[in-house]
Amino acid sequence: MVTIRPLFTATLALAFALPFAAQANHDTAAPGSSGHGGHVHAPRPELGASAAYDAKGTLWAVYKDGEHVRLRSSKDDGATWSQPVTVNAVPEAVGAEGDARPRVALGGEGEIYVTWTRPMTKPYTGEIRFARSLDGGRTFSQPIVVHSDRQEITHRFDSLAVNTTGEVFVAWVDKRDIPQGEAAKSYRGAAVYYAVSSDHGASFRGDWRVAEHSCECCRVALTAQPDGTVTALWRHVFEGGVRDHAMARLGDDGKVSAFTRATHDDWQIDGCPHHGPSIARDDSGTLHAVWFTGAPGNEGVQYGRLVDGRVEGQRRIGGDTAEHADLAVSGKRVAIAWKEFDGTESHLRAMRSDDAGRTWREIDLAETAGMNDQPRVLVHGDTFRVLWNSREQPLRVVALP
Amino acid sequence: MKAALRIAAMLVACAATLCTAASGLRPFGPTTLAQVKREHAGKPFVLALWSLHCAPCREEMAAWRELHARYPSVPIVLVAADQPDERDRVEGFLAKNDPGTVDAYVFEDEFEERIRFGIDPRWRGELPRAYFFGADHKPEVKSGLPERAWLDRWFSAAAK
Asked: Which residues 70-129 of chain B have a CB within 8 Å of chain A?
């Protein structure tokens, strides 16, 4: 073993010295550009998908298909799906791995809103893309970039919500505030920014900052409030490198209020958790959340109610391999789904409360032996289902009783 | 003898592929850690997981380089938690940030839960992540960049 190490180094050095164009370019290849530029492996399946019900009970799903975002609909809760509709007619890179995925939300008049991140050439860079359909998903508008900042920097991990008056909120992780040069090294994390459309997605205004010092690699969670604001929950980088969560309320006028530390696990990590939270509001106004912490002694996926800067009813979800939970709320009913891997199969598991999180029952929902996406909890009326996209069963929808 | 044959095989592979660095990066699967432990039986070593998509991991490479130069008797096994189709980029990055004469691997396929489970069922994918195996191969586990003073203490004890 020892004897081949010098050879490895020499081989690397030699390879680097040779004028192979491909070699020199690869370190800056776009993260989403797999399958291009001379890669010998098949494009990896990026399974990040999202879905949402409209008022009539049609389920709309978006997912990545090469350099396109595609939309399919189902009138029978995912048993059968329509032919795909292409959201972006012109091919482009689409981020759909880890916490990144195309997003879909419905407007009050049947509008279909879709966002995704288009990775750019440099590592970690991207822009947040948006397209809408006003004809029931038959055609989509030309995609636009929702932020006015056009530097080739991080604008990633888009999140999408429609507020009570039909305005479209898009939030994302943004690195425009990181100083240039050496000072960049001491800057904590990135920032969360957002933009709002008050004309059903025809245009966006904003580039409003929610907060500096967010985590760089975790999704942002949004939930609409009755007063037209939207609550955002994200992994923050607090003093001392503690990556717990923070929340704030976003107004349609750019006014950000009520910045609060939301979780208190004290997970100190100078690294990338790749594991963002989810949040939903019940009919009495209580905010329910799921998140992940690696804090020693309490590692795992957590559930809790976020009340005035405190966490009520915090409990660890699932077993030692539980990961990537999502949740949805209907009235006082709360449904959580996550996945666990047992060495052979991934299991989709769920937890449901009918009394706003006081008592729970656990349910085993499904399993797959192949690659699979993070689950997404869907709600229509008082019925919960889970979207679990997998290589074996694309856009699988499982009832959560 | 076995090692010599392996080198010969690699040289042939090297010639066949016009000597890209591909021959240096080995695939890491669910059972690879057991094999790495056998290779370092009775000796301390570090299993360091990193990724192109993790900025702190990139920063960590300089620390591994320095530690390896200072404590060459303590093996550092670098495992890129990246996809097979990113192999060329992983190699390019390692060539630029040459951590020294260490063993380097990249995840063998995209089903990362399976590979993570083979290393540590409790690891949820946060990076960087390092397992500091003592001579008895009981690990101390660190998520994120470990403090430099801690690293120096561990490496100097392991090098004894």
From this structure: 83-89, 91-96, 98, 100-104, 110-111, 113-114, 116-117, 121-122, 124-129
